Amino acid sequence: MLQLKHIHKHYGEKTVADDINLEVGNGELLAILGRSGCGKSTLLKIIAGLVQADSGEVWINGTDHTRLPPEQRGISLVFQDYALLPHLNTLQNVAFGLKMQGIGRKESYPKAMEMLAEVGLGNEAQRRVESLSGGEQQRVALARALVTNPKLMLLDESFSSLDTGLRHHLRQFTADHIRRRNIPAVMVTHDPEEAFTLADHIALMDSGKILQTATPDALINRPVNARAARLIGAYNVNDTHYIPQQALHFNQAGGTICTVTQFSRLPDRNLLGMQHPQYGEILLLPDPAQTEGLNLQTGSQWPLQVDEDKIVWFDR
Ligand SMILES: Nc1ncnc2c1ncn2[C@@H]1O[C@H](COP(=O)(O)OP(=O)(O)OP(=O)(O)O)[C@@H](O)[C@H]1O
Question: Is 84 a residue whose pLDDT tops 90?
Fold first, then answer.
């Protein structure tokens, strides 16, 4: 289990960690979601011991790790650029972490082979890592991170450089491995989709502050303020309120007549904009079956029901 207690960090005038308190249980994946420059990577580095906080404590499995050097923390990091060692082959790369722990080849190579097989690269052990594809290199990085049986995994935008199909596959693959091994993990990302598809809990970070920590469902239903709602990429947000998708019912008898402002078909959903007399332009994602065969040209009119009790009002 990871616990961060009152972490503070400044760079000059800039506060990059402002009283951060977080907990991550074993086998649990916490995503820290925030815009570029909000302090996500710095927080990971503080957890890893690569950057010292001004104050606050990092506890892992009930012991204070705040003053331990990085190599004694038992943490594995997976970076965006994999950070593999180009002069070593696949097997040697995976065994490297074990070597650093003082484990000899006799023990480290079989363990590394086992882990390579687990990530589907059992036949590539002797390949130079440079000759592997991006996705394969990412799996080597993951194998290297997992083989040391870390107390904690840290993932820093680990999937951003991969193409869409591979990204989906490796995200799920990584999350499954972490959960199966019961390791707590922290992933930082600026991509709401990544956070929402993988994480058990999401911490929303803004200018060094955690705005809200909650499950994906709770965040969708009840972001604490407009900033939080915008950070999760929600539609229909202004300074006073947020209208979640589940509050919207397109083409419902008795709904308010609204004018279509835009309509586009996306591969797996539709995006429909409607001008509502009370709430202004509302964007909704109707099921394709609900819009099939309808005239949804700009200017056409259709009823839209808004469940008032599902609207989230913000305190100003
Ligand atoms: N060593 C440093 N010295 C001074 N300022 C720094 C240092 N490291 C980071 N910063 C600044 O602190 C802020 C937070 O940086 P950090 O890398 O943690 O952000 P981030 O949320 O991870 O951003 P990104 O998503 O772009 O990687 C940025 O404004 C950055 O320029």
Answer: no
> Could you tell which of 11, 50, 207 is best to mutate to test the pocket of ligand 1, judged by most ligand atoms within 8 Å of the CB?
11
Residue 211 Cα to ligand 1 middle (Å)? 18
Between the two ends of the chain, the Cα-to-Cα distance in Å is 36
pLDDT tens for each residue of 56-68: 999 999 999 999 9
Which CATH code for domain 236-313? 2.40.50.140
Using a 6 Å CB cutoff, which residues line ligand 1?
Answer: 11, 14, 16, 34, 36-42, 190
Burial class (CB within 10 angstroms; exposed 0-12, middle 13-18, buried 19+) of 264: exposed
pLDDT, one tens digit per residue, over 42-54 is 999 999 999 999 9
Q: Which of 18, 41, 44 to mutate to test the pocket of ligand 1 (most atoms within 8 A of CB)?
A: 41
Distance 37 CA to ligand 1 centre (A): 5
CATH architecture of the domain formed by 2-229 = 3-Layer(aba) Sandwich (3.40)
Model confidence at 101: pLDDT above 90: no
* 80, two tokens: 């965006």
Q: What does the pLDDT read at residue 316?
A: 64
